[in-house]
Specification:
This protein is 44% helix and 16% strand. It has 13 helices and twelve strands.
Length: 358
């Protein structure tokens, strides 16, 4: 019979892997007496023997938190990183950063590097990828994360976890309402009178993009409208700009306001939306006079853009704060409330100055 693991103990005791490690591996941070007794009882029942390496890690706090993001140049991720930094500072920790362009292989290397430097916790905020050929790299990433957790580490993932990690006690997930907010945005745009839609999305298989697209299409379907046309480009400002140029060229002779004013473009993130607007403007199309444009995220650093952008707002800095709190085990006995967003209707869609819905 295989020896019991720390993950087995955590599962039986009904606590996180980080909490079980603090009790059994001698951490200076100890949970309450009731939790301690429950963990010790589970360890006794399973015949668990503490790992010396894990004890060494638990007893020698490094004060380091690892943060993995998709692209630090994207204001969404830099804003999220600010939230992680604030939480880390309040806990007396320092942040190590890796920007991976959403590659599962690069994410695995980042987790391995953070583990080698004995980071106490890791936050993974890159968009999950199901692009062709990603299966093997996702499997290797999951194995690396599980190995790190088995030695007492703790990981929080923003948005969604890899399926292979759903039962790993050291992994926690901060759910983000991407589908719900995209649905609400679709409803709001229909309420403004738009009748035809086009979605500028990232590559097929990029999870954040795909779920936002799905939520938006659901809103149209529930309203009895035809599905939006979808243009897939790079998940960046450059991708949005290329899409804007292409869309303007396709509109061609129909560029008169009366011909296309009922159409609205939804770009699945704000930087893509701003790229779309730049491409349209370069071809002589005015937003929102000729065509409406909406984005997603409501990143604070982009709010001075003109026309002001209609978007589905997420509290991005708060997401960083919460994700790092999860990773540090600061909410073991009091799970965090769901992230709440709202739709912001602004000048890039017709008939709007500044308002919010939701």
């Amino acid at each position: 019979m295989a020896a019991s693991t720390l993950a087995d103990v955590a599962k039986l005791a009904g606590v996180s892997l980080a909490t079980a490690s603090r009790v059994l591996n001698g951490s200076t941070r100890t949970p309450g007496a009731a939790v301690t007794k429950r963990v010790q009882g589970a360890a006794l029942e399973l015949g668990y023997v503490a790992n010396a390496q894990a004890q060494s890690l638990a007893r020698s706090s490094t004060g380091l938190i690892g943060l993995v993001v998709h692209d630090i140049a994207d204001p969404y991720f830099s804003t999220l990183a600010r939230g992680v930094q604030k939480q880390a500072k309040s806990a007396g920790k320092m942040v190590l950063l890796a920007s991976t362009d959403g590659s599962p292989s690069d994410e695995r290397e980042a987790v391995a590097a953070f583990a080698a430097r004995r980071a106490e916790a890791i936050v993974i905020a890159g968009s999950r990828s199901h692009l062709p050929g990603a299966e093997k790299d996702n499997s290797l990433l999951a194995a690396e994360i599980e190995r790190y957790c088995n030695y007492g580490g703790s990981v929080s993932m923003v948005g969604a976890a890899l399926p292979a990690l759903l039962d790993v006690a050291g992994v926690r997930v901060l759910k983000v309402p991407n589908v719900e907010q995209a649905y609400a945005l679709g409803q709001a745009l229909l309420g403004l009178g738009y009748k035809r839609f086009l979605v500028v999305a990232g590559p097929d298989g990029l999870v954040t993009s795909d779920v936002r697209l799905a939520g938006f299409q659901s809103a149209l379907a529930d309203a009895g409208r035809a599905a939006a046309e979808v243009v897939r480009v790079e998940f960046s400002r450059a991708g949005g700009y290329a899409a804007g140029l292409s869309i303007a060229a396709q509109l061609g002779e129909r560029s008169a306001a009366e011909a296309i004013s009922e159409k609205c473009i939804f770009a699945v993130n704000d930087v893509m939306a701003m790229g779309v607007i730049a491409g349209l403007l370069e071809r002589g199309l005015q937003v929102p006079h000729h065509i409406g444009v909406a984005g997603f995220d409501d990143v604070e650093t982009l709010r001075d853009f003109r026309p002001s952008l209609t978007t589905a707002q997420l509290p991005v800095e708060e997401i960083g704060l919460r994700a790092s709190a999860l990773a540090l085990g600061m909410d073991d006995d009091d799970p965090l409330a769901d992230v709440v967003g709202r739709v912001m209707l602004r000048g890039s869609t017709r008939g709007v100055d500044s308002a919010h819905v939701g």
